[in-house]
Design a protein that fits this description.
globular; Rossmann fold; 11 helices; binds NADP nicotinamide-adenine-dinucleotide phosphate; two-stranded parallel sheet
Length: 277
């Protein structure tokens, strides 16, 4: 049995679908099973913390998603170990690299989780993806209502990674031997600017979409209303650093899955429904 946390998220959902398709027993953990819409082949269980051991009964592997303020992680790891889990695959971040700003809140979150996993006594594999292609959903409300996307840093370049490519690597790390102690850096196959991403979404939708750049300090709070102010400053600083800089591009998805990572245009084709009314 493989337990998957964050099972309704971008990566977790893709992973649950893959494991069900592969015929593997999978337990999908979610705070809201009633709204989760997970595949019938998965055992969907409410994520609750008063009896964490019950979450992992019969499980030998764990896919672990962490979020800001993830002070539940050590408790979950201890419960998993006590229940018989032997290997955890952690969804970390490419922000963990030598020379990184260790005070950046996203770095702190993932470095803390990696340390907690290392300290857990479980065998581990870290997945360190760069920017998710799914971040483009930030523009969905605007794209549903018009052809102009207002955003920051039109020329910021990234190599967005398809969530199902991350899930495909997670699947191999969970099912195959040889990934224990490895940290896999995952990216998409090519660099694309924000302007290019919006154009690709437009192409997939059969529409001519344009990106209009706004000044980040003024527009940041409006464009990212759910990001806490401290985090927003760090986020905008990260975006600024992506202008005029070539993003890291790895071949890890192909090396591990045997299939190259999908370009952003393919992600856009796969997700047109998310941009339509
Ligand atoms: N976006 C990027 O570019 C990027 C890049 C590198 C790494 N990452 C990392 O990848 C992770 C995000 O992965 P994702 O996009 O697959 O996840 P996601 O879609 O943001 O969310 C995963 C699921 O976690 C659950 N969740 C949300 N907040 C929670 C909380 N406070 N406590 C417990 N459960 C919570 C929700 O499910 P339920 O409501 O069903 O419980 C949600 O569907 C983060 O750790 C992020 O830092 C992201």
């Amino acid at each position: 049995m493989i337990a998957v946390t964050g099972a309704t998220g971008n990566v977790g959902r893709a992973l649950v679908e893959r494991l069900v398709t592969a015929g593997r027993p999978v337990r999908a953990l979610t705070r809201g099973p009633e709204r989760a819409r997970l595949p019938a082949g998965a055992e969907t269980v409410r994520l609750q913390y008063d009896d964490p051991a019950a979450l992992f009964e019969g499980a030998t592997k764990l896919f672990l998603y962490v979020q800001a303020g993830g002070d539940r992680t050590p408790g979950l790891l201890a419960a998993a170990r006590a229940a018989g889990v032997r290997h955890v695959v952690l969804l970390s971040s490419a922000i963990i690299e030598p020379g990184a700003d260790e005070t950046h809140p996203i770095h702190v979150m993932h470095a803390t989780a990696e340390r907690q996993v290392r300290d857990s006594g479980l065998a581990w594999t870290f997945l360190r993806p760069g920017a998710f292609a799914a971040n483009a959903f930030q523009w969905a409300p605007q794209i549903r209502t018009g052809d102009t996307v207002r955003g920051v840093f039109a020329d910021a370049r990234s190599a967005p990674v398809h969530e199902d490519d991350i899930a495909a690597v997670a699947e191999r790390a969970l099912l195959d031997d040889g990934h224990e102690g490895a940290a896999h850096r995952l990216t998409g196959p090519e660099a694309v600017t924000n302007t290019g991403q919006v154009a690709a979404i437009g192409h997939a939708l059969g529409r001519d979409l344009r990106f209009t750049e706004l000044p980040p300090d003024e527009a940041g709070p409006e464009l990212f209303p759910h990001v806490p102010p401290g985090m927003l400053t760090a986020l905008l600083k990260s975006f600024a650093a992506m202008v005029g800089t070539a993003p890291e591009i790895t071949d890890t998805v192909r090396e591990i899955t045997g299939r190259p990572a999908r370009p952003f245009a393919a992600w856009a084709e796969d997700h047109t429904a998310g941009f339509r009314n």
